[in-house]
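User: Design a sequence. Structure:
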C-alpha cells in the first residue's frame, strides 16, 4: 500500500460484508479456564508466523468495530461443556465486537463463531491439524474456512484450506495459479513467501487486487522511508530554490555591472565628445587668430609701403 489514503480506500472497497453478531462481547465466564499449564511447544518458526499474521489482520481490520481478531486463546463452542474448546493460532470472527479484549471467546455468548481459522503446523500438532481439526472447526463449530500452513523451511511445503459449500459439505479450497488460496469469507488472498531474514515460509494476506497487507513494522519502515524520501525531496527542492535565488542574484549583479559599464561607457563617450568639441573649438580659435595675425601683418606691410612712398615723394 503506497499511502495511508490508498490503504483506507482499499479497506472500504474490499472489506467483507456481514451481519453484526446476535450476542454481546464477553470477557470471561466463571468456570471456563482461559489458560493451561502447558508451555508453547511450537518454537520460533510457529511464533513468528502467528504474530506476523495476527498483526496484519489487526492493521487491516482496525477500522471496523465488529471484526474480532484472536491469537492462541481458548474458544468454547458448547455451553456447559468445558471439553468443547479449541485454541487456534489465529482466527477472525466477523460480526463480533473488536473490543473489549477477551480472556476466552464463548460462541453462544457472542452469538458468533470464528469465520476463518489458521493453524501453523508444528511437529506435535501437525497430524491433528491436518485431520481431526477439520471436522471440529468446520462441522462441530460451524467455521466457514480453515487453513493450515507449514512455516518451517526444514519441513515440506504445506499450505491447504477447507470450507463448507452450499450443501454444508466440507471441500478443499482449490489452489490458484501461484499456489495461493483465496478466502471468500474474508475477501482476501493468501500465499506464502520466503522470508530470508527469519528463514521461514511466511504466510501473508493480499487484497484481491494483489496489494500486500503489511505488518506494523513493515508499515513503520515504509513510513520512515517515505519521510526520508520526502525530506530528501525537500532538501533537493530547497537546494534548487537556493540555486535559482543565487542565479537570480548573479544575473541581477551581472545586469547591474552591465548597466554600470554602459553608464561608464556613455560617460566616456560624452567626455570624448566634449573633448573633441573643445579641441575643434580651440582649433577654430587658432585658425581665426592666425587669420587675424596674417591680416594685421598684411595691413602693416601695406602701411609701411604707403609710408615709404610718401617719403619718396616729399623729397
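Assistant: Done.
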Amino acid at each position: 500500500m503506497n499511502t495511508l489514503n490508498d490503504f483506507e480506500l482499499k479497506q472500504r472497497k474490499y472489506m467483507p460484508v456481514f451481519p453484526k453478531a446476535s450476542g454481546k462481547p464477553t470477557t470471561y465466564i466463571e468456570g471456563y479456564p482461559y489458560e493451561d499449564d502447558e508451555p508453547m511447544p511450537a518454537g520460533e518458526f510457529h511464533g513468528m508466523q502467528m504474530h506476523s499474521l495476527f498483526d496484519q489482520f489487526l492493521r487491516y481490520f482496525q477500522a471496523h468495530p465488529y471484526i474480532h481478531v484472536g491469537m492462541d486463546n481458548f474458544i468454547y463452542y458448547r455451553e456447559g461443556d468445558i471439553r468443547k474448546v479449541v485454541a487456534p493460532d489465529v482466527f477472525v470472527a466477523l460480526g463480533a465486537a473488536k473490543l473489549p479484549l477477551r480472556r476466552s471467546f464463548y460462541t453462544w455468548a457472542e452469538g458468533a463463531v470464528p469465520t476463518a481459522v489458521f493453524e501453523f503446523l508444528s511437529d506435535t500438532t501437525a497430524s491433528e491439524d491436518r485431520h481431526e481439526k477439520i471436522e471440529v472447526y468446520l462441522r462441530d463449530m460451524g467455521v466457514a474456512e480453515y487453513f493450515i500452513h507449514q512455516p518451517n523451511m526444514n519441513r515440506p511445503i504445506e499450505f491447504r484450506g477447507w470450507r463448507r459449500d452450499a450443501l454444508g459439505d466440507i471441500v478443499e479450497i482449490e489452489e490458484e495459479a501461484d499456489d495461493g488460496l483465496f478466502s471468500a469469507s474474508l475477501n482476501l488472498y493468501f500465499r506464502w513467501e520466503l522470508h530470508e531474514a527469519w528463514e521461514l515460509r511466511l504466510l501473508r494476506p493480499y487484497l484481491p487486487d494483489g496489494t500486500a497487507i503489511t505488518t506494523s513494522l513493515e508499515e513503520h519502515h515504509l513510513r520512515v522511508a517515505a519521510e526520508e524520501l520526502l525530506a530528501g525531496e525537500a532538501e533537493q527542492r530547497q537546494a534548487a530554490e537556493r540555486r535559482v535565488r543565487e542565479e537570480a542574484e548573479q544575473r541581477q549583479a551581472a545586469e547591474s555591472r552591465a548597466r554600470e559599464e554602459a553608464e561608464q561607457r556613455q560617460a566616456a563617450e560624452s567626455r570624448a565628445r566634449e573633448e573633441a568639441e573643445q579641441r575643434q573649438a580651440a582649433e577654430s580659435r587658432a585658425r581665426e587668430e592666425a587669420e587675424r595675425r596674417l591680416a594685421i601683418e598684411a595691413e602693416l606691410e601695406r602701411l609701411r609701403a604707403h609710408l615709404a612712398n610718401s617719403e619718396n615723394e616729399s623729397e
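The CA atoms of residues 20 and 95 lie 4 Å apart. The mean pLDDT is 87.
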